[in-house]
């Protein structure tokens, strides 16, 4: 994957970088994406929590929040649909949403701000499941498309692109 943040986030959520190679703030996409075109269509709820986001659905940069870490606002079918855009919220909303099963989304996404960004282009992935022993670390080198494909397979969702369709499922976690 490319080093800039945005192409990596687009690969994770859309199965493709759609030609984006920089951390642009106006390179909006009409491409399909995981949350609207797969999760919501399947009848599941979703919500993306953005650390230091000034307000729900915020567009632009407001350090330490940076739009390049929020792939969802780049997708036209999120950004231009008020009901979908309402699912992109400040991380401070997470506690309230986790207060009950009714308010907890089926799919949740948490993005750091610039102060908690990962160094060295390493992406921490935490898998929580009953069958995974505490401290388990996979020896397999997965990529962005692997995580996307794993979500799709777990929920019986169709792949978004050939990239995720051909990706290795993170099966050693399940």
Keyphrases for this structure?
174 residues; alpha/beta; 7 helices; 26% helix; globular
Description:
It is a single chain. With 174 residues, the protein is an alpha/beta fold. It has one domain (5-163). Helices cover 26% and strands 7% of the residues. It is built from seven helices and three strands. The protein has helices at residues 5-14, 34-40, 76-79, 82-85, 94-97, 144-155, 162-165, and strands at 46-50, 88-90, 107-111. A three-stranded parallel sheet has the order 2-1-3, with helices on one face. α1 (5-14) runs parallel beside α6 (144-155). The longest helix is centred in the C-terminal third of the chain and has 12 residues, at 144-155. The protein starts with a helix and ends in a 9-residue tail after the last helix. The mean pLDDT is 93.
Gist of the model:
With 174 residues, the protein is an alpha/beta fold. The protein has 7 helices and 3 strands, in the order H-H-E-H-H-E-H-E-H-H. The model has no long low-confidence stretch (mean pLDDT 93).
